Amino acid sequence: MWDVLRILWRVVFAPVWLLWTCYKGLWWAFDDSDTRRAAGSATIAPPDAPPPPNPHTDAPRFAPDQSKAFEITDSTPAPAKPPIGPLRGGFVSTAILSIASAAIASSLADEGAITDGRAWALWIWATLMASVGTLYIVRHVARRQAEQEPKTFWGRCRMTAGGIKDAAFGAGRGMGNAYIKGVHAAKVTRNAVQKAAASPPAQAAKRGMFSAWTALRRKSQPTNPPTAPA
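Now predict its structure.
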């Protein structure tokens, strides 16, 4: 009986389970834990490293009683488990934001402000942005969780608030740096364009284009204008 109910539960909530699986799979792109970095660096061999021994062709050259002393063990650290608790909170937040954006896009389409196609595009874009934003917050919450390791409910609440604060300050610093770099790039581009426009070849090209335009205007004008009737 319980097996049948479990199967029915999975069938009914299959879309939610699939969305949760996809959301949890996106954590791989945001995971920056020390265990993952160590695992990634352990799998990269230097270019001048000798090839690994082949157990079929490279026979051991030691006595049988010495085999245990020369056994090769895999020292690659086990992959870290994803933070399921923060990921669940991020998934629920993403679902709420997606529903809210769907309601806003639907209301705008009903009022005729945007078309149905743009409403769908707005909803998809808002859902993707919500997924990325919540995963960014989950990463900061996971860092706090790894540092503090709270044991109580209020400790987890303080940890979550601290992670959200870190994410907000990090996003603010990133936007500020992007704005400063954008302003600098705009100034450099403007100076380069002004310098190129003031160069002799550019001035000569400008004078040539002006002369050609003047000649075309003269040719288009009638040589003998019509006289007024007496």
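Residues 153-197 form the longest helix (45 residues).
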